Amino acid sequence: MTQTAQSQRQGILMTDAALKHVLLLREKQGQDLCLRVGVKGGGCSGMSYTMNFEDASNIQPTDEVYDYDGFKVVCDPKSLLYLYGLVLDYSDALIGGGFQFTNPNADQTCGCGKSFSA
């Protein structure tokens, strides 16, 4: 199954560019880690996105786990209320590059694109 076809059934979607970059970053860590995506209070618009690598042993029974050809993306249920349908992309552009979040649940986003309100 192609990444695009698989990701259409995911609650958190990753573009091929984002997945490629995350896997590269994980390789530099030298461990088989998963990616935890979530939200926390703060930022310009009220809530900020969080992304961290963590050991798969930290996955909780209540977490949603999305598999991308063996790489796990994990999200807690409270964050998923705000993130379901999120598209995580990556650009290596000199201006505006980095990870980009397209969140269908956001009423408003800040200029940097790293925080939102819902």
Strand order of the largest sheet: 4-5-2-3-9-8
Average pLDDT rating: 85
Order of helices and strands: HEHEEEEHEEEE
The total number of structural domains is 1
User: Can you identify the CATH class?
Assistant: Mainly Beta
Structural class: alpha+beta
* Gyration radius, in Å: 14 Å
Shape descriptor reads: globular
CATH superfamily: HesB-like domain
Give the helix proportion (percent range). 10-25%
Please provide the count of β strands: 9
In DSSP terms (H or I, runs of 4 or more residues), the helix count works out at 3
Percent of residues in beta strands: 35-45%
Q: List the uncertain runs.
A: 1-8
Write the CATH fold name: Hypothetical Protein Aq_1857, Chain: A
Separation, N- and C-terminal Cα atoms = 33 Å
Largest sheet, strands/sense/barrel? 6 strands, mixed
**Secondary-structure arrangement, i.e. CATH architecture:** Sandwich
GO biological process, one term: iron-sulfur cluster assembly
Protein name: Iron-sulfur cluster assembly accessory protein
GO molecular function, one term: protein-macromolecule adaptor activity
Family: Belongs to the HesB/IscA family. Ycf83 subfamily.
